[in-house]
Write a structure and sequence with these properties.
about 160 residues, 3 helices, alpha+beta
Length: about 160
């Protein structure tokens, strides 16, 4: 039997196959985000009485829409994840509280990521204790959306 193994080792096809299986885990690895969060970071700054919040995700996103259009006690920002493979699971996380580490000038009472289920796209859901003006844009890096929020008027944000 040992002689059989030695003969197989000399066979170049066997060595190629062995090489492929030895490095398969290395070749198959992909950069995946750590943990099970969809939101990577939030940054907020106040400019002329306007709170500008950048929400960065662990995967690329495309901003789709928001509702209501410009003012309300809540805001729903819908986007589409631009991902494939195993990272798709992160976009389907059912519910994740979003934490703001910086102060904002608007009365946010709830800030959540709601994961997409089946055919629905994920969205950010914000609620406010009073009516707020808002505007939403796609981030330049396609990993973020930018929220402009003000209790006075949206013109303060421009």
């Amino acid at each position: 039997m040992l002689l059989n193994i030695m003969n197989n080792l000399r066979n170049s096809n066997f060595l190629v196959l062995l090489f492929c299986f030895a490095f398969l885990p290395v070749l198959d690895t992909q950069a995946q985000p750590a943990g099970n969060r969809a939101v990577d970071n939030t940054e907020a700054e106040i400019i002329n009485g306007c709170s500008v919040i950048t929400v960065t995700f662990v995967f690329p996103v495309q901003y789709l829409s928001h509702f209501p259009k410009s003012k309300g006690n809540e805001l729903r920002v819908q986007f589409s994840p631009l991902i494939t493979g195993q990272a798709t699971v992160l976009a389907e996380i059912s519910n994740e509280a979003v934490r703001l580490m910086d102060d904002v000038d608007v009365p946010i009472t709830r800030f959540e990521y709601i994961g997409g289920q089946f055919t629905e796209n994920p969205y950010l859901w914000l609620t406010f204790s009073e009516s707020v003006y808002f505007k939403v844009e796609q981030g330049a890096d396609f990993r973020s959306v930018i929220l402009y929020l003000s209790t006075k008027s949206i013109e303060a944000c421009e």
